[in-house]
Each structure stands twice: as structure tokens, then as C-alpha cells.
Amino acid sequence: MGFGALLYGWRKSARVTQVQAGRALGMGERTYRDLEKGATPPRFTPAQCESLATLLGLDTEERHALLLYNIGTNLIPPRGAGQPQLQQALRLLIDRQMPSPAYLCDQHWNIIAFNTAMAEWWPWVMQPGANLILWALTSPEARTQYQDWDKHASAYVKMLKFAQAARKDDDKLRELIDKVKKDRDARHLWEAGREMGETRDGHVFRMNVPALGWETAEVVSHVLYPASMPQCRFVVITWVEGGEEEHDALGGTRNAWAATTANPDDVEVAQWHERNRVAEDAATRWRREAATLASRMVVATPEEAGALAGKNGIPMPVISKLMGPDAQLTLAPEQSTVVWAVEEAVGCWSVTHVRPATVIARVSREAVHGACLAEVLQLVRAALPAEADAATARIRQLLEERDTEQRVLREVLNKIENDDDGGSAARETGPL
Predict the structure, then answer these.
(1) What is the domain-level CATH number for residue 55?
(2) Cα–Cα distance, 130 to 340 (Å, whole number)
(3) CB burial class (10 A; 0-12, 13-18, 19+) of residue 396?
């Protein structure tokens, strides 16, 4: 009965001797034999649990049981590098936020799940191991899309410092911080101050979104903590109409959140909640695991992913390579979408449907030639109306708009060059 019976059953199934099991735990055969007979065991450390679980070949649920019997540990769900999982109800909630972008991330800001709008606006979330902090602080893309990037980066650094103060023994958090500090600008922000901030809940900010033709969007971030996954963040991005330049859409001072800091009392409260979340998570995880499902559509092979584009699906091998070594994109002409599949683990391809314009925005201009140009042309045609007359009218409208933009830019360029020439001439001539 009890823990000893579990050990006995696992060991027999694995055909492991008591001597081998004892060695995995760093104890003698007699001590281990007493454990199987029902002796009250010492609390195994996480390292001992991992060693024994590996030796016995325990599956996910058995590993959870081993940990729960010993250290009541926080059982972290699979991360973005593996198959992301969450409760079906939470998956439904994320999807129902459409057309607002929404995503779920863990305590280390790894993206676990997202809806189609999120993938349309920010396709980086579809990359294996996608991490919000790394993208925001180290990618050139974020510097282009965030207006006042330095203020956003400063806020994210404050959040990292708050997490570090609240979770001092978090090795994965330490690894994330080390990665961030390899970026020169991020490291400068880290070393510039000691302020901390817990979240960006309710923050109003502006971004230049490629999927919207680089139109500036003013958005509000809403950060929630799901009761079923208390260490994760459920974030919804609401698009709002912009206010006056000095005020945001909610009437507050623009970027006022950038100056928000946390104090030691806030850290103490966060540590208290962290301990409570760990206890709750350990007590209820076994119920939740049975009700989980993939956050995105998941198939076993790239062929299955491509089949989702329909019988007339068009493979896009060149653009797929540009999107990443583990990506496969297939154009679905009838649906006017692109099936974007990413291999997240062996036998696990995560699939998201996006608009052709989203893919076009991710292809660099330098790459648009040869076979890549042929694939881009197919994407552009799929993004246009199906009827020839409507497609022709739309193309003419776009060409007229581009011609107007180029004409205005040329006039501005000529004016700047003429003004500079005039100023240079005046400087060379000197005062009369």
C-alpha cells in the first residue's frame, strides 16, 4: 500500500533490481528495500526523483506522482519547445477573443498558445520556442514595431528584475536573463537601474503592425492569471482608437506605465502568491492533466499538415526555408489562407492558418527573385479577390496608391536635397 507499493510496481515493470534503484537514489539496498516494505521515506530531492524516474522509465503521470509524494513540487506543463498543452476551456477562451489577438505564456514568457489574430499580427509566436521577452528585448523586429522601443524594453527589464527577486532559485529564469543580457542594448538597460515592475496589465502603447500594412495601432494589454494554470499569463491585446498625442486612448499620460515601479512589499506579496500557487498547482495538477489538449491543431507528419490546404494546395518550399528550418508552408487557394506548420517535436507538427499577406510581410525584399518570386506571386494572387475583374480593379487601386506615395516621397526627397544644397552654398559663400 502507499508509496512503497508504487515503487515496487514501477521497479518490477521496469525489471530493475533493488540494488539499481537504491543506487539511483544514492542509498544502499537495505534502505531501499525498507522503502518498498512501507518504511516512511525521507523526502527525495528533485535530482533523486529525476534519477529514479529515468531509471524506471516513468511516463509523465508517473513522474508527477513521484514528485507529489516527495516534494509536492510545482509541476511545470510542457513549454513552447515541446507540444504545448492547456485545458479545453482555456483554448476556447483564447479563440473566442477574435478578432483581438490573445495568447497564453508561462512564467518564463514562453508562448504556450495563441489565436489566429495573434499569429496574423505577430507571426514570431509560431516559431518553436517563441518567447515574448527574448523577442521584445533582442530582436530587430521588435525595435521596428514598438514605438518608443526603449521605454518598452525598460518595462520588460523591470519585469525580469521583479521575477528574479520573487523567484531567486529559478534556474530557467536565470538562463533567460543571461540570454537577454547578451544583447548590448538590453544589457545597458539592465545595468542602468534597479527598478522593478510586475506586469504590463492595462498598458496603452503604439505599434507598427506589418499585417496592417505597417499602420500604427494603439493597443491595450490585459493580463490575467487563469485559476487552472495560476503561473501562466493569459493576455488579450485590444485595439483602440488613438487619443491626443500627449494622452493615450484611455485618457492617461502616454507611456506613464514606463515609470511604474514595484517596491519590496510588492515582491513579498509576489513571493507569498508564488508559494501558494506552487501548493495549489501540486494539489490539483493531476485533475487538470486529464483534461488537456493541444493549444494548436497538431498533426503527426508534414504530409498531414500539407493536406489541410486541400486537394489544390500549393507547397511553398523556398519560402518555408526562409521562415525557418522546421517550417512548412502550403498555400490553400480555395481558403485564401496559408497553412503554416512547425515541427515542435518528433511526430508533432503544430499548424496555424494565416493570411497570405502575413507571409508576404515576412519575406525580405532581397529574397524576392527566382523561385521565391514565383511563390510570392502565387501568394499575392491568393490575397486578391477570386474574380478576375475584381482582382484587376484591386491591383489598379493599389498601383495608383503606390504611385501617389512614390511621387510624394520623390518631391520630399528633392526638397530636402535642394535645401541642403542651398544651405551648403550659403555656408561656402559666407556672409556678404
Answers:
(1) 1.10.260.40
(2) 15
(3) exposed
pLDDT tens for 245-282 read 554 444 455 454 445 554 555 555 555 445 544 444 43
> Is there a single domain that holds both residue 287 and residue 421?
no
CA–centroid distance for 420 within its chain: 46
Sheet containing strand 102-105, strands side by side: 111-114, 102-105, 233-240, 215-224, 204-209
Cell (9 digits) for 292 = 488537456
Q: Which residue do the cell numbers 507611456 mark?
A: 255
- Measure the CA–CA gap between 426 and 432, rounded to whole angstroms: 10
Q: In this structure, what CATH number is given to the domain that contains residue 97?
A: 3.30.450
In this prediction the pTM is 0.49
* N- to C-terminal Cα separation, the chain: 105
Residue 317: left (phi > 0), alpha (psi -120 to 50), or beta? alpha
- Say if residues 229 and 84 touch (Cβ distance below 8 Å): no
Question: How many of the other CB atoms lie within 10 Å of CB of 405?
Answer: 10
Strand partners, 135: none
Is residue 343 within 8 A of residue 326, CB to CB? The reply is yes
Alpha-carbon distance of 35 to 290, in angstroms, equals 29
Question: What type of residue is 99?
Answer: P
In a domain, 77, yes or no: no
